[in-house]
What we know:
Elements: E1 5-8, E2 11-14, H1 15-35, H2 45-68, H3 72-94, H4 108-122, H5 127-150, H6 156-159, H7 162-194
Antiparallel strand pairs: 1-2
Helix pairs in contact: 1-2, 2-3, 3-7, 4-5, 5-7
Amino acid sequence: MAGNAVNIGPRRWGRWRIAALAVAALLLLLPLAAMQFTDEVDWTALDFVFMGALLGAVGLGAELAVRKTRNVAYRMGSCAALAAAFLLIWINGAVGIIGSEQEDANLLYGGVLGVALIGATAARFRPAGMALAMSATAFAQALVPLAASTFGLSSNALVWSLEVLVISGFFVALWLISAWLFWKGALEQTSAGAT
């Protein structure tokens, strides 16, 4: 048996995969445990299915990124982008970013994810193109409060609150970190190809 892999049946599972599965299971068990102690957490079966599907999609995306290349910067850029998408969906669905989850302005964050997905597809998941796609996604993220205010989807007090601006800044930073890592991956790929 290899030093960093565990033999499970016909497949070999690395420690990172097992750790990722454990974290996903823990994320699903936390609300279940919290429901035993407080009425503040009230998940339905559909909530658990949605979270399981979301975790599965992120896990699949990470697995595909790892299989695509050995370029560490590309892999890290993929993980940063997947983390940003996961957190954006989770936070927005659970409590909303602009006001509550019922605020129409929160639907604009679906457009941010659309920019990321369309940009990544158009870039054919190549590092330089992914860097541009994630930069465009950061720009789209930054525009959401302005768009929500311009189109009257939420009151100006909600859109320009310190909380919304800090959360938006956090996501812009995540997308830009992802873009920088993809750009670094593109440079590494270019220099490796030149040798």
